[in-house]
Design a protein that fits this description.
The protein has about 280 residues and is an alpha/beta fold. It contains nine helices and ten strands.
């Protein structure tokens, strides 16, 4: 499985100029190879460049150095083969759930007519549990329902890669768990290659096949890869009873603690040199 280079992020660097005009690498020499149908969680402290990596894969921001190859084609701009679900649902308020999901289907399925596009949109809303709210507007729905629309809109494109940028960050814990299972059920059915950016250690373990731990930024890179060998479909109660779950959890927390300690040590060195 690991030999399948479906999505290859190779020696990728993203730099921005600082106020003095010097180039500063937010992400530096980032390398990650992802197999078809694999779910990868990316975790790390705030500011380490997790979302930057995701946005480069989405084609929303250009790569400074290196390259991203998806199924033998270089990623240089956005496309319907990569769908993004952001922390905020980003729905158009004047459109219903169904109309929001219909956005983009014309370019994703140019050979299909309007009724076929509508059939796809309705099916995707059914998959996320919103078959009874297809004609509701965003203001009539809870935050969790709005995020379900965002998920339906993403999977309606039938993307090769699903990119999830803290998609549950604004939700309460119960809704968060419900939507984790909604996405996992879709991934089990459609086998979509997925990148999930998250701050939540338990979420990373529960949802992923592998976890990519990023070092501190700037110059952030892959610090460690953790293989999560639980079978699919996942059962939350069964996984929480696994002793290995708590071992994985400890490894992640230790890595994050080490990064935090390194950041504090570097800060103290800078203060000592300027004193």
């Amino acid at each position: 499985m690991r030999g399948d280079r479906y999505l290859n992020i190779s020696s990728v660097t993203k730099s921005y100029p600082n106020p003095f005009g010097d180039e500063v690498a937010v992400v530096d020499d980032f390398n990650l190879t992802i197999s078809k149908g694999e779910v990868i969680s990316i975790i790390g402290h705030s500011g380490c460049g997790k979302s930057t990596v995701l946005n480069m894969v989405a084609g929303l921001i250009p790569v400074t150095l290196g390259g991203i190859i998806l199924e033998s084609k270089e990623v240089v701009d956005p496309g319907p083969d990569r769908a993004v679900v952001f922390q905020a649902p980003c729905l158009l308020p004047w459109l219903s759930s169904l109309e929001n999901v219909l956005l983009g289907l014309k370019s994703a399925y140019p050979d299909k007519n309007k009724s076929e596009h509508e059939e796809i949109a309705k099916y995707c809303l059914f998959q996320v549990g919103l078959d009874g709210a297809m004609y509701k507007y965003p203001k009539e729905m809870s935050g969790g329902m709005q995020q379900r629309v965002g998920i339906a809109r993403a999977i309606a494109l039938k993307p090769k890669v699903l990119l999830l940028d803290e998609p549950f960050g604004r939700l309460d814990s119960l809704t968060r768990m419900e939507l984790q299972d909604v996405i996992l059920n879709i991934l089990d059915i459609q086998k979509i290659t997925t990148l999930l950016v998250t701050h939540d250690v338990d979420e990373a373990i529960y949802m992923a096949d592998r976890i990519c731990m990023m070092t501190n930024g700037p110059n952030a890179k892959v610090g460690k890869i953790l293989d999560i060998d639980y079978s699919r479909p996942r059962n939350r109660d069964a996984i929480l009873e696994e002793p290995s779950f708590y071992d994985f959890r400890q490894q992640l927390l230790q890595f994050l603690d080490d990064c935090e300690e390194e950041k504090n040590n570097n800060k103290n060195k800078i203060l000592a040199n300027t004193a």
